[in-house]
């Protein structure tokens, strides 16, 4: 693909104008001043550019749209002939004339790429947080190259030829995308999870680990019982943090289900799951499928692609992707109201079968399907010669980059601290870095999100108040989300504070999971996590610490544990060596600015670093300078507002205690 920002570009002129405060006449004056100063891209209109790049107290645009003219000033004056300059000026003035007509008449393109009636993409209503809108006009050496802005907050460069031989990221991660052959090994859907700690002898026979430990429900009752008490996390993180965490978890990990049942026994007289004391209650559990590796070890299989590649939106196979596509204008299937289509098996048709599990998750799935279609509409409108395949792949690339940027720039710094989350630290390492998802991460540490979950779902009403509904009643209930609208769900999640990271979880997950909403058996998520860790032969908590060079925990009153947790652990386990990884990791005090203890901070940090470093398509590796600058400042709130101008979402969607509205 020819890149209009490459050094051989002859002319690149950037125009910024404040459409809220300037009339068409004033805008024309701004254009005139810009061209008098930067004819053929020799210099920049600094004031317009600075407005585009920095948020102000008036809530101006955050998108880091930078002028590219100065870097080309020398080559421009040296290369252009008089005839070329005249032709360029003629073309630019012609385009400006068309733009000014649209500005004066108010008929700018709508958010779906259509023209005529509808909300203007550059109107205040379309961008309540932006008072500056941008047009980027690039004239490059490649006839098939063009740069456009994404609805006023980001530049992309696309191939307008309609050709489909660009090496796009494949749906299943198989070799064929950029530089896949340079990986230490192929990384694709359907491969085994890797291990940070070698599996024990039980993994050779396919047996459970920790068979001498107490049963999972007993541990859950002793350690994880929160009831309906509320806690608050130390960083003021909102419920959006755990919904986004689940969204990303479903992008990178999905254990293949086996056929062997291994139900969790419920102790006789359990007050919640065996109130009649008949001793016949159990929590249903099916073991994960395995494959035996060359060393005779049973390894569990990951059916997702182990990259942050938006496979939860697009599917992890070409067949699944085709099911989701409309094959018209490069868009995904949505119903007439902009919701995911219904599906008999999974409730909704999405890239991951778990999309409808809870309202926040379903809202994020719907949001990014809409975002894909929004971007596709803009790409298609600006590049009428691009075919469906090319538009789809370009929109997918942009949307995937957005998800990566939000994950590494907003989500991870809150969860594990700035020092562990800077994407600029993750240099691409072809052939050196294994990007596979580790079992210790997927089955242990990253299940930390379960302790953050609130007992109630908050819905933001039109008057700004929050309506709260028991989470236990809305599992796999897509009609609930459709009734209230995804913006109300997402705004509610952004304002309700998430629970604290600790080994206790709310009753909706521990004593009511799925049972109230779909009439099925009640599950205990804490017990399921413990059982799954033993099923996957995870190391114990102390074995994990030892493998990372950390001190062993020898007493239940060790200062590494949160206040009061050691006594609970002592009531469930005989010795600290017996503590399951998930339980022990959540019991630690927070480490530095991380919300997690040191053990889980290291595991999570390691995993996301490897995912970025091993991925040739990660945005810091393949985006041009200007696209990367835009992505580094992009927020989830930007995406929500771009798809719903009326959304009552604050600027910091992941922080509940800092309600700032632009």
In short:
The protein has 662 residues and is mostly helical. 37% of the residues lie in helices and 9% in strands. The strands form seven sheets. The protein has a three-stranded antiparallel sheet.
Walk me through the structure.
- This protein has 662 residues and is mainly alpha-helical.
- The protein contains 25 helices and 15 strands.
- The protein has a three-stranded antiparallel sheet. A two-stranded antiparallel ribbon has the order 1-2.
- Strand 10 and strand 11 (298-302) form a beta hairpin.
- Helix 7 crosses helix 10.
- The protein starts with 10 loop residues before the first strand and ends in a 19-residue tail after the last helix.
- 54% of the residues are buried.
- The model is unreliable at 1-80, 101-148, 157-166 and 175-186 (pLDDT under 50).
- Main-sheet strand order equals 5-11-10
| DSSP, total strands | 15
- Strand fraction equals 5-15%
Shape: globular
Largest sheet, strands/sense/barrel = 3 strands, antiparallel
Task: Let me know the average pLDDT.
Answer: 78
Low-confidence stretches: 1-80, 101-148, 157-166, 175-186
Nearest-angstrom radius of gyration? 26 Å
Secondary structural class? mainly alpha
Count of helical stretches: 25
Percent in helix = 25-40%
How far the N terminus sits from the C terminus, by CA atoms, comes to: 37 Å
């Amino acid at each position: 693909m020819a890149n209009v920002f490459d050094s051989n570009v002859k002319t690149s002129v950037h125009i910024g104008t404040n459409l809220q405060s300037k009339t068409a006449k004033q805008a024309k004056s701004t254009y005139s001043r810009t061209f008098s100063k930067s004819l053929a891209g020799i210099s920049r209109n600094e004031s317009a550019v600075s407005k585009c790049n920095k948020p102000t107290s008036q809530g101006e645009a955050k998108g880091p749209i930078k002028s590219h003219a100065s870097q080309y000033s020398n080559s421009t004056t040296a290369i252009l002939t008089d005839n070329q300059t005249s032709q360029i000026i003629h073309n630019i003035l012609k385009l400006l004339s068309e733009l000014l007509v649209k500005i004066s008449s108010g008929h700018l393109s709508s958010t779906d790429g259509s023209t005529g009636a509808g909300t203007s993409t550059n109107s205040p209503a379309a961008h309540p947080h932006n008072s500056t809108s941008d047009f980027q006009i690039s004239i490059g050496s490649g006839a098939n190259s063009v740069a456009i802005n994404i609805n006023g907050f980001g530049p992309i460069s696309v191939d307008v030829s309609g050709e489909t031989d660009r090496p796009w990221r494949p749906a299943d991660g198989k070799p064929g995308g950029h530089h896949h052959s340079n990986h230490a090994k192929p990384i694709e859907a359907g491969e085994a999870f890797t291990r940070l700690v070698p599996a024990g002898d039980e993994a050779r026979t396919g047996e459970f680990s920790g068979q001498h430990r107490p049963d999972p429900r007993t541990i859950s009752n002793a350690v994880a019982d929160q009831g309906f008490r509320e806690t608050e996390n130390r960083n003021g993180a909102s419920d959006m943090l755990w919904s986004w965490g689940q969204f990303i978890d479903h992008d990178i990990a999905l254990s293949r289900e086996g056929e062997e049942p291994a139900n969790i026994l419920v102790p006789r007289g359990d007050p919640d799951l065996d109130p009649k004391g008949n001793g016949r209650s159990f929590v249903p559990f099916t073991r994960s499928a395995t494959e035996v590796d060359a060393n005779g070890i049973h390894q569990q299989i990951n059916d997702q692609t182990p990259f942050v590649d938006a496979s939860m939106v697009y599917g992890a196979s070409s067949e699944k992707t085709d099911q989701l596509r409309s094959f018209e204008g490069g868009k995904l299937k949505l119903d007439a109201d902009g919701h995911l289509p219904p599906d008999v098996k999974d409730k909704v048709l999405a890239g991951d079968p778990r999309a409808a599990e809870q309202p926040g998750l379903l809202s994020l799935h719907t949001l990014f399907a809409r975002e894909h279609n929004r971007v596709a509409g803009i790409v298609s409108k600006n590049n009428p010669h691009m075919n469906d395949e090319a538009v789809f792949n370009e929109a997918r690339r942009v949307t995937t980059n957005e998800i990566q940027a939000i994950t590494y720039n907003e989500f991870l710094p809150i969860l594990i601290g700035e020092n562990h989350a800077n994407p600029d630290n993750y240099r691409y390492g072809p052939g050196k870095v294994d990007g596979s998802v580790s079992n210790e991460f997927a089955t242990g540490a990253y299940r930390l999100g379960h302790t953050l979950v609130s007992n109630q779902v908050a819905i933001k009403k039109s008057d700004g108040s929050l309506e709260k509904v028991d989470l236990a009643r809305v599992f796999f209930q897509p009609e609930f989300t459709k009734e209230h609208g995804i913006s109300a769900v997402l705004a509610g999640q952004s304002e309700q504070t998430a629970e604290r990271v600790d080994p206790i979880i709310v009753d909706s997950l521990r004593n009511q999971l799925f049972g109230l909403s779909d009439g099925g058996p009640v599950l205990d998520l804490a017990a399921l996590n413990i059982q799954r860790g033993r099923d996957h032969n995870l190391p114990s908590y102390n074995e994990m610490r030892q493998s990372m060079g950390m001190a062993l925990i020898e007493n239940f009153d060790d200062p590494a544990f949160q206040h009061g947790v050691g006594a609970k652990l002592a009531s469930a386990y005989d010795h600290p060596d017996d503590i399951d990884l998930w339980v022990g990791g959540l019991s630690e005090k927070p480490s530095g600015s991380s919300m997690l203890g040191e053990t889980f901070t290291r595991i999570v940090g390691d995993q996301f670093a490897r995912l970025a470093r091993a991925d040739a398509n990660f945005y810091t590796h393949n985006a041009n300078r200007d696209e990367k600058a835009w992505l580094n400042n992009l927020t989830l709130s930007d995406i929500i507002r771009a798809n719903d101008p009326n959304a009552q979402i604050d600027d910091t969607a992941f922080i509940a205690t800092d309600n700032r509205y632009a």
